[in-house]
Amino acid sequence: MTSRPAPGRLQPRQAERPPAEGAEAPAARAQGTINRASMLILSKAAGVFSKPSKRKIYEYLRSSNFHPGKAFLHKVVLGIETSCDDTAAAVVDEAGNVLGEAIHSQTEVHLKTGGIVPPVAQQLHRENIQRIVQEALSASRVPPSELSAVATTTMPGLALSLGVGLSFSLQLVGRLKKPFIPIHHMEAHALTIRLTNEVEFPFLVLLISGGHCLLALVRGVADFLLLGKSLDIAPGDMLDKVARRLSLTKHPECTAMSGGKAIEHLAKQGNRLRFDLTPPMHRAKNCDFSFTGLQHAVNKIITQKEKEEGVEQGQVLASAADIAAAVQHTTACHLAKRTHRALLFCQQRGLLPPSNAALVVSGGVASNFYIRKALELVTNATQCALLCPPPRLCTDNGVMIAWNGIERLRAGVGILYDTEGVRYEPKCPLGVDISKEVGEAAIKVPQLKMKI
User: Fold this and answer.
1) How far is CA 91 from CA 221, 223, 413, 452, in A?
2) Cβ neighbours of residue 55 closer than 8 Å, sequence gap 6 or more
3) Distance between CA 388 and CA 405 in Å, rounded?
4) In what helix (H) or strand (E) does residue 191 lie, and over which residues does it extend?
5) Which of 148, 213, 271, 297 is most deeply buried (CB count within 10 A of its CB)?
6) What average pLDDT does this structure show over 433-447?
């Protein structure tokens, strides 16, 4: 196992030089054919046309003398992601090359409404999904007919958002006559590291985002043991709520930042020792998490400081940076301690290899470098490697969905040739839950000095 990124990965295929003026190169002409055929198919998947016209697609391909089957002999998957507030798509091959990708973020819209409004997210997905998929396919230069499969997030997530991606994808695979691969959003986050690093099974994964928080042992594709999860809200959700309570969108340095990013940014300027916050569940000897109590404690501090500073709710406190630093540090300590116990449990039970054991941290909150440093203290103490995908692959994206599709194709797991009865699942557990067994082990975690 090594942390060295594989060569050639994460680099979208570059466009060729334009042909000389007055003479269209064969490659460019072929690419135009692909684009026209792709647009026709995608438009039908989006319901723009009422009747299919395969003849036009075949005429396009025949007229260009282009034979895509000769160029794409290996597995290539289109991944589509609409689980929450980002519309994303990507085309990835089995070597881990990102051939093309596109994403439409809804962050700016939801910042104005103070949070994600599901019907708004649904409408934005509907407006952008066809364009995003088309952009990813065009950048990849892979014609839809040469895709090995289409992989799409179907669980868990916002019901209205999941529905848009699933509906579009089912129409698309129906017209293309391609296999469909339903993707568990958290499985995709967990396996992303195998796209960027040479990581063998098994490994421990900590998935932390705006909607999820869990620890799991990854024994293989679609083979997970759940060690612990959040009993209430996720850390990203808690940080977003604290940011809204602090009115950080009104802070001149944070106007365009998501809540979690704003907390991380301001925390660099703050004194984390100014406010005393106790990490949640510090007496419970299991690997579960909780963030609601921490959120309430921070809200009380904010209310008290508003009184002391004579500031009305909705205005930015002078002590906002110190509060951000305190809540970020407490969150990092909570995540670190539960993860430390999970590593010790796995080592005691022989669930991780005695050498080259790895902790993978993924999900949107994994892009927080302060939290990464806290977890690095844990991996140093347990002689494990800490591995994180690049920040852009920690947040929701189409690349991780397409790669999960590649992983499942190679393993021969969860590939559907008949999509009858496929449904999205807003709530869906990951793997086999052994968290009770972890709690019964009651492993005591050594005290670590969190000097970050």
Assistant:
1) 20, 24, 19, 38
2) none
3) 20
4) helix 185-191
5) 213
6) 97
3-state secondary structure of 373: helix
What is the length of the chain? 452
Greater model confidence, 246 or 28: 246
- pLDDT band for position 14 (50/70/90)? very low
Query: Global pTM?
Result: 0.83
Q: Which residues neighbour 286 within 8 Å (Cβ) at sequence distance 6 or greater?
A: 228, 338, 341, 435, 438, 439
Please list the residues that pair with 308 across neighbouring strands.
none
| Residue owning tokens 């839809």 | 144
Q: Is residue 207 classed as helix, strand or coil in its secondary structure?
A: strand
φ and ψ at residue 93, rounded to 5 degrees:
-100, 175
Task: Note whether 42 and 236 are within 8 A (CB).
Answer: no
Query: Cα–Cα distance between 444 and 441 in angstroms, integer?
Result: 9
Span 410-430, average pLDDT? 95
Token couple for 33: 């054919």
Q: Helix, strand, or coil here: 181?
A: strand
Nearest Cα residue to 233 out of 242, 225, 224: 242
